[in-house]
User: Fold this.
Amino acid sequence: MSELKLINTYKNELQNYSLEQLRYKSEETVWSIGQMYDHLILVAHEYLDNMDTCFTLNDEQPLGKTEFGKHLYKIGGFPPIKIKLPDELNTPPNNLDSRDDLISRMDQVILRLSQWSSRVDNINPNYKVEHGGFGWLNAKEWYDLVGMHFRHHLRQKDELEQRLVK
Assistant:
């Protein structure tokens, strides 16, 4: 499934949740569905910002990916494990957005991705920005990472939906 199709599916599925369901937390340490969406949107913009930076660079970067980064791109996505970020990177996501807020924010991600979809392959692959865990990534890799990240959260989305009070 393409990045844009997947993200549109996420966006369209927002219609299925009431405000109470979006904000529902089954446990203090478990995100709500709304928080998961907030996280996905923020990270997508961060990845797209790094892709934009690659586009503006003029210096080639000879360094490449870390071993984990190489593995990630070789298998085409995150392994099916829960990833815990260090506490300083693990601020709880916003749990206050309405469904319309989230839809509007998803539209911004979709717009940015679609604006780049036909042009990202034309950016010099040696113009790179460093990712803290995966190493030096070029614009196409940052673009692909958006979809990988959304796919990675599908299992979490299913788990959160199963915990909802219908």
Observations:
- Helices lie at 3-13, 19-23, 33-56, 67-75, 99-117, 139-152, 154-163.
- The chain has a mean pLDDT of 93.
- DSSP finds seven helices and two strands in the chain.
- Residues 20 and 30 are 15 Å apart (CA to CA).
